[in-house]
Amino acid sequence: MLKKILIANRGEIALRIMRAAREMNIPTVAVYSEADLAALHVLRADEAILIGPPPATESYLRIDKLIDAAKQTGCDAVHPGYGFLAENADFAQAVVDAGLIFIGPSAEAIRSLGNKLGAREMMLEAKVPIVPGGEVKSGDLEDFIELARAIGYPVLVKAASGGGGKGMRIVPAEDQLLESVEAARREAQSAFSDPTVYLEKYLERPRHIEFQVIADDFGNTVHLYERECSIQRRHQKIIEETPSTALTPELRQQMGQAAVAAAKAAHYTSAGTVEFLFFEGHYYFLEVNTRIQVEHPVTEMTTGIDLVKEQIRIASGEKLSFTQDDIHPRGHATECRIYAEDPAIGFLPSAGKIHYLNEPSAANLRIDSGIYSGCDVPIYYDPILSKVIAYGRDREESTERMILALKDYSILGIKSNVRFLIDCLSHPEYRSGNLFTGFIDQHLPEWSEPEIGENLPLALAGAVLAMSARQTTGAEVTAGAPSSLWETLGKWEL
Amino acid sequence: MDYQFVLNGQVLAVKAERIGDRLTLSLPTGTHVFDLVDLGNGEFLLRSDGKQYKVVAVKASSKVIVLTDCITTTFDLPSLKDGDHFGADQGEHGDKSKVVAPMPGKVVKVLVEPGQTVEPKQKLLIVEAMKMENPLVAPFKAEIVKVNCTAGELVDSDKILIELRQLT
């Protein structure tokens, strides 16, 4: 078993990994930047190492500093979490080269799955359905026209080394094809130093359905069923659930097998996610995420498997502790990501101090949180704050439990998407399970925070009380201020 | 005691009196009486007409933030110096004819030029911060008076990026 793990991440996922390791009696080391001196993952850590100034490029993305920190503290393994260096093949390699264990797939698997064209080829060979399309090896514009006709419009021009929507263009008709190919090439060249672009059929109302896979070093690869992650904004998921309302048992079976085949084709080990687009009863391979994912808890709720612990066991050289036949998901789980952002103004991130926080608690409710009342949300990193996961016997119960939990999720001082999530989950189209990746744009395009209306006197009463109350919320506490018994007994002054 | 709170640019005058656990609020629109329980940490239980409400209220420098029934209301305090200009609270108070950087970031794209007329919510420029590209939009119909930044520039929070003149 591993002796000590360095967690090369921050926020809720660092705490999540810490908890798994602690349950296995493995000590952990946290790392932090100067912006995170009082972050929750640091406060809760047994040991914490400062790795640099606030910008991620000078701290959480510094491979050399992370490896130094691991060696300095006697760690024998590194867990990358998600984001930052989690899917960086050079980091995985550097960890191994330093004589440490990388808790995740091999550098080769990360690299080979990172190139979109390469991954398409690999899946084609493994007989995993891919979105119709392909590369134009000659690079001739004439050949692009021919390929696009064969695929059928609308088509998508995508960068081979791309990500985050850069170098990506939707082409509705032939007269815009050449212009789009050239623009995408320019964008891809400047963003990724690789002008290679390829064509794919553009699916207009797809669902995003992904399969959790996990594999050990002994050739055992198991899938842990699907997660539907169609509710997205800015191409980022905000609500995820399992099972998906779109899959029949037969399709679920087929897609699970395809996911296992995809993982095997890449000689994948550890936990990973095979993403598919799902459209009109057909599924198409999208990409493999070579990391533990933000939404992994929904799978844990319905399967009872602790994915992070399993990753640690696999990294220790153990066999998977279960087989495919042992996995029988039950019930329904939904996850909502709580972000520091304002959904009313294009989901603009909102940094600052959290003056008040109260997170809900209830039966079959899980909160993975990286914040506390009085903490700061720095401007430097992804604005995810926490995740709320609600389990129920069926989708209805899971959704109701989630709505109630969000109504009890109180956060003051920064903007959050809590109210927006409630409105998403309450939408009739969400309730009937008619999801697709454009759901938010179509159903909640001009969302704004509801106004106080007839409850204004109530809010004003609150404002008056806050003005006259002694500040004990952490919001305005004067450090080291003397507090005597007389003060706490003092009469109200209005 | 008299209070003034600013909500959406409108000044609300409140007269409040507390005797024991009873809070009486006199507003221009009427008088409201609440029986209250102070739960600590900024949490209050307010009872009125047989109904009971949970209210969370905190004071943060120049603002009071109140949460009631899943609705957050941010009141500005006119008497205090405006000292809290950080994050997305930007633009809720102060001079809306100046579009300022809500946080330190990089200007990715400037989408308007001086003299141009923009519609409410029209994107003016895109600033990259917290790993994301964030559009800053016009608060109202306006003419662009001045553009103080260029694409690629790193800007600090509160820097005035674009100046507007409101059109009616």
Overall mean confidence score, pLDDT of chain B:
85
Largest interface: A-B, 57 and 60 residues
Round the Cα radius of gyration of chain B to an integer and report it. Answer: 20 Å
Rounded to an integer in angstroms, the radius of gyration calculated over CA atoms of chain A is 24 Å
Task: Return the CATH class of the largest domain in chain A.
Answer: Alpha Beta
Our count of helices of chain A gives 17
| Residues in helices of chain B, as a percent range | under 10%
As a percent range, the share of helical residues of chain A equals 25-40%
Please give the domain count of chain B.
2
Per DSSP E runs of 2 or more residues, the count of β-strands of chain B stands at 16
Number of domains of chain A: 4
CATH class of the largest domain in chain B: Mainly Beta
Q: Could you give the order of the helices and strands of chain B?
A: EEEEEEEEEEEEEEEE
Note the overall shape of chain A: globular
Strand residue percentage of chain B: over 45%
Oligomeric state of the chains in view: heterodimer
